[in-house]
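User: What would this chain look like folded?
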Amino acid sequence: MRVEVLKSKIHRVKVTESNLNYIGSITIDEDLLDAANMIEFEKVQVLNINNGARLETYIIKGERGSGVICLNGPAAHHVTPGDIVIVCSYASMEWGEAKLFRPTLIFPDSETNMLG
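Assistant: Here's the prediction, encoded as structure tokens.
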């Protein structure tokens, strides 16, 4: 049996911008991606602490060290710059592997989106 488990989580980052006129996705600072063990084009779930919105999209790599968290395209309707979000990715694995697996969790400063 295979199960989906949390693979990576960026916990509580501030949305720095939203861009309705882009084709879709979430742009995330490359430093955060590396720390969270996430990659460009990976499917993610975005959870908005401010309004409860939950959406799925994919990652676009943002400029390293910029702190950028930008929701693009239709997802831009679900955030306002300044909102705090959690970004999660998941992996499918065999039951035995899943029981031993531990996700990568990062906790950036929610004011700067930088790691301490």
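Helices lie at 30-36, 95-100. If you want, I can go into more detail on any region.
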